[in-house]
Design goal:
The protein has 12 helices and 16 strands. By secondary structure, the chain is α/β, with parallel strands linked by helices. The longest helix has 14 residues. α3 packs across α4. The chain folds into 2 domains: about 160 residues, Alpha-Beta Complex (Quinone Oxidoreductase, Chain A, domain 1); about 150 residues, Rossmann fold. It comes from Streptomyces sp. SID12501. One of its GO terms (molecular function) is zinc ion binding. This is NADP-dependent oxidoreductase. Keywords: Oxidoreductase.
Length: about 325
């Protein structure tokens, strides 16, 4: 099958198009003919080798973390799906590879595609929708009336997190550029900070939760907008010991991750708030929870640009250069 593989860690030149063997289909797997896949910041981080401690993929490997497609084969133990089903998924972290014609995915990580979406729209959702759910529902337990700050509201994650937080009954603030103020308001943001004109930490106060996708100084400043007992949950900050335990990492790795997050955890403690790191997990069940909201139009996908499969490298470069105006960059397979 045709695929885009990482031949060596490093810059974009390490990604090549070529032929690779068709995937093997396990007893609990579905084989999906991919119709569309989307680009995530995680793809760049994996390719660059920034995630090797967490995700030690052996080169060469197929890149890509989101898909929508059609089931063409099912394993002997599969009960949820049949050949011909239209599905979407974020494969498990140990089984990535959506920039390809085919992928085998465990049935537990797959869900039927929302009927109201095109393949391209559906492919834009799994990773960011699952991340939003796991931050806002599983980790933060958002309740109606709570105040949530979503950074980078016009990005792939931000556009979905704003909408989910509103469905949970939260008051939602977000940060964005001047060009996207109207977009994030249409998505449901109650308060919008144009980061080109204002410093968010000077105008937002007493928030219950911050969803951080930027890290660095933005993460540190986010502590100042929380009320006592509030929490910042980051997908871009330093990993912590709790995440290392989730991974089943050895004591050395646990210690290293604890050290990496020491500064931000100490700063959070001094302010009476908490910091945690989240790396999202694949879940077909959670995609099924989200599907009624998607089909009802309460959560809608935001797609910036669609590239043909042959231009996957260009799509990766486009996204990495920050050229997307809003939402996700998608690759169409056929």
């Amino acid at each position: 099958m045709r695929a885009f593989t990482v031949e060596r860690y490093g810059d974009k030149a390490g990604v090549r198009a070529g032929e690779v063997p068709d995937p093997e289909v396990g007893a609990a797997d579905v084989l999906v003919r991919i119709q569309a896949a989307s680009i995530n910041p995680l793809d760049r981080m994996i390719r660059a080798g920034e995630m090797k401690t967490i995700l030690p993929y052996k080169v060469p490997f197929v890149l890509g973390n989101d898909l929508a497609g059609i089931v063409v084969e099912v394993g002997a133990a599969v009960t949820r799906f049949a050949v011909g089903d239209e599905v979407f998924a974020r494969p498990d972290k140990d089984r990535i590879g959506t920039f390809a014609e085919l992928i085998a995915v465990h049935q537990d990580d797959v869900a039927l595609k929302p009927t109201t979406l095109t393949m391209e729209e559906a492919a834009s959702l799994p990773l960011v929708a699952l991340t939003s759910w796991q931050v806002l529902v599983e980790r933060a337990h958002i309740q109606p009336g709570q105040k949530v700050l979503v950074h980078a509201g016009s990005g792939g994650l931000g556009t979905i997190a704003i909408q989910l937080a509103k469905q949970l009954g939260a008051h939602v603030a977000t940060t964005t550029s001047t060009a996207n103020v109207d977009l994030v308001k249409r998505l449901g943001a109650d308060a919008v900070v144009d980061y080109k004109k204002q410093a968010f930490e000077t105008v937002l106060h007493d928030y219950d939760v911050v969803l951080d996708s930027l890290g660095g100084e933005t993460l540190l400043k986010s502590l100042d907008v929380l009320k006592p007992g509030g929490q910042v949950i980051s997908v871009a900050g330093p990993p912590d010991a709790a995440f290392a335990r989730e991974l089943g990492a050895n004591p050395v790795i646990r210690l290293a991750m604890s050290a990496l997050s020491f500064r931000i955890r100490r700063a959070a403690r001094r302010r009476g708030v908490t910091y945690s790191f989240l790396f999202m997990k694949a879940s077909g069940d959670q995609l099924r929870e989200l599907t009624p909201l998607i089909e009802a139009g309460r959560i809608r996908s935001v797609v910036d640009t669609v590239f043909p499969f042959e231009s996957t490298r260009e799509a990766l470069e486009y996204a990495e250069a920050g050229r997307a105006r809003a939402g996700k960059v998608v690759v169409r397979m056929r």
